[in-house]
Design goal:
By secondary structure, the protein is α+β, with helices and mostly antiparallel strands. 19% of the residues lie in helices and 27% in strands. The protein has a single domain (3-110, 120-243), classed as Pseudouridine synthase (2-Layer Sandwich). The protein has helices at 35-43, 67-78, 163-170, 184-194, 225-233, and strands at residues 3-7, 11-16, 48-49, 58-64, 83-91, 98-101, 126-137, 147-156, 201-209, 216-220. Strands 1, 2, 3, 4, 5, 6, 7, 8, 9 and 10 form a 10-stranded mixed sheet that branches. It is globular. Keywords: Isomerase, tRNA processing. It catalyses: uridine(65) in tRNA = pseudouridine(65) in tRNA.
Length: 256
């Protein structure tokens, strides 16, 4: 059963578990469980995707209950009229809040994008980050005797593929569990020492105007048990309240 965060006659939002695909993909042909099919069976009606979250990313996933609402929601995404806030655990101490304004070239899949244009110019990409907590743990990972981590709040202003992961790596603070852009030693260390495998990136909040009523709507996805045990171990429990009092910027984008 998927955790339903919001539902009315027009749209539905769920807390997507980490490791679950949104829909069937030939790139993950061995997977048999998907959000769309699971949710369809759970509520007894068809659902329509309007944005995506990558398989390892957890958090708010919004779906429409009709093709017309899907079109209206997709327009909001395309025009960057939806605000999304993520939380992430990254390597090292992030010392201050800031903004990454760093253009990104399009990431392409070797098979799916075999015939796509290979020399596209880099596209503008902007992400904002805010430091919530830091922690140094007495475990040796790599060449250091201790391991340092930061809990950060991330707000993408644009929606490039893997934007938040790539921007945090650009800052030399890769997101823990990122196998494509991160620190493999730190990923293994987090799993080995803290029993916390997987990507530590969670889509915590989404703010939008309801596509039919026009009323403002804010949807929040609580951290799952993996996140809860880590913030407890790192003495970050007080940071959980950030999920309730997040302040949205005037404009933000999407990431996956």
């Amino acid at each position: 059963m998927l955790e339903i965060l919001f539902q009315d006659e027009h749209l539905i939002a769920v807390n997507k578990p980490a490791g679950m695909l949104v829909h069937r993909s030939w790139l993950d042909r061995h997977e048999t469980v998907f959000v769309m099919q699971t949710l369809r069976d759970q509520i007894g009606q068809h659902v329509f995707t309007v944005h995506r979250l990558d398989k390892p990313t957890s958090g708010v996933l919004l779906l429409a209950l009709s093709s017309e609402v899907a079109r209206l929601l997709s327009q909001q995404f395309e025009l960057h009229q939806m605000n999304k806030v993520y939380h992430a655990v990254v390597r090292g101490y992030v010392m201050e809040d800031g903004t990454v304004d760093y253009a990104l070239t399009e990431e392409q899949d070797k098979i799916a994008d075999k015939f796509a244009t290979q020399d596209k110019p880099a596209q503008p990409a902007v992400s904002h980050y805010r430091v919530l907590a830091r922690k140094e743990m007495p475990v040796a990972i790599g060449k250091y005797e201790t391991a340092r981590y930061s809990l950060v709040e991330l707000t993408p202003e644009t929606g490039r593929k893997h934007q938040l992961r790539r921007h945090m790596t650009h800052l030399r603070h890769p997101i823990i569990g990122d196998t494509a852009h991160g620190d493999l030693k730190q990923n293994r260390g987090m799993a080995q020492h803290f029993d916390c495998p997987g990507l530590m990136l969670h889509a915590s909040h989404m703010q939008l105007d309801h596509p039919i009523s026009g009323e403002p709507l804010t949807i929040t996805a609580p951290w799952d048990s993996r996140w809860q045990q880590l913030v407890t171990r790192f003495d970050w429990l007080g940071c959980a309240s950030e999920l309730e009092r997040v302040e949205f910027p005037e404009q933000a984008g999407q990431d996956s």
